[in-house]
Amino acid sequence: MKTFSEFRMPKAVYYGTNSLNQLGEHAAALGKKALIVSDRVMEKIGHVKSCQQLLNQNNIPYIEFLDVNSEPTDVHVAEALELCLREQCEVIVAIGGGSCIDAAKAVAVLATNGGYIGDYMGGKTPIEKDPLPLIAIPTTAGTGSEVTNVTVITNTKDDIKMMIKHPAFLPCVAIVDPTLTISTPPHVTAATGVDALCHAIEAYISRKSQPLTDNMALSAIESIVNYLRRAYENGEDLEAREKMAIASMQAGLAFSNASVTLVHGMSRPIGALFHVPHGVSNAMLLPAVLEFTKESAIDSLAEVGRIICPGLEAVTNEELADAAIREIKKLCRDLQIPNMKAWGLDEDRFGQVVDKMAVDALASGSPGNNPRVPTHEEIVDLYHRCFSYDFSAGAATLSINNQ
Question: Under DSSP, is residue 91 helix (H, G, I), strand (E, B) or coil?
Answer without folding.
Answer: strand
